[in-house]
Queue: 2 jobs
Job 1
Amino acid sequence: MDILKSFTRLGSEWIDKFSNINESASINECLPNNGALNHNIRPILTESRLCGSAFTVQASPGDNLILHKALELIRPGDVLVVSYGGYLESGGMFGGVLSTIAKEKGCLGLVTDGSVRDSKAIRDIRFPVYSGGINIKSTTKRVGGKINNPINICNVTVNPGDLVFGDDDAVVIVPKNQVAEVYKKAYTREKQEEVTLKKFREEGVIPFESNFQKIFADLQLSEE
């Protein structure tokens, strides 16, 4: 089926919990496989934060017809995740008008490996957009696509309902069947980092030092 109107979304409790994680790296380090999208998927807004349930779209380079259909179907709490196969010179598929409609329908943001346009308008309405580039070339509205099927973006598989987390560093995808385990590990990791810094500030101890001493000794690095 090309267009699926319903799918199992993440419960709001998981979105709330992951929203309190500080860093995308904390989440990605706790995944069994890489979930981080490529480094060039950058936020249009500075100090961006994004956390929601993936609404997946497979689109054709140079055409944004399927995005108009997607806007009919999105629900509050969804994040549009759009695969264009990484084509950046085929036009800006998503701009100020579509961003405004998406936001007013309760969509939490857009993630795409394609290009967008109208970056000022996107910033003005404070709509979180992560894209591979900015491009003002025209698009067509003649080619179909798929909605809420599994997609591949930056060599990461995204299924509808997966958790999407974005900050100023990166976008990370957490498969919905792994959210409980990954959240527990990421929360614990960040709490441990707080303990590490507290120990350094109070005692002047760099906790990693003892762990690395044997490695440095084995490498036989010269030292003054």
Note: The helical segments are 12-19, 24-28, 65-73, 96-104, 119-124, 179-203, 208-219.
Job 2
Amino acid sequence: MQDLYGVWMRLRNKVNEMESIPRDYGVEDPLYLSEIHILQAIGDTPENNLRVIAGLLGVTPSATSQAVTKLAGRGLVRKIRGRKNEREVSLELTDPGRIAYEHHERSHGQIYARITERIGTLSDEELALVGRVFHAFESVYDERIEELRTGRQQSEVR
């Protein structure tokens, strides 16, 4: 388990490094990974709002709201008030936002192909096992975030 955790930590650090490098997604300004992932979540989820997008990405609604406001200011996202009620804000991609989204989708396709090339096709059972591992990491990190926010430590290991 310790070796697996070491790989996870290196992977996490590499993703953090990738976050700091803006990339060209076919629109006027380069975008950071966190920004393109917000566009991806909006593009993939037609029935959305800030809370839904935040939940998909595992970030706070406040952080999502700030990022969406910046993306809207750059002409990539449109906020639509009142689809369901006047208080709720739905989000949709503008034409440039859709271009960035599609560019990112092609990039994901290339990454998936490279990963598949290296590990081969996984059986349903193997995919389920990998999913269990990732979900375990996610749930432990969710607990740790809550501990850090509240200042309380879990008294027992789960």
Note: The radius of gyration is 18 Å.
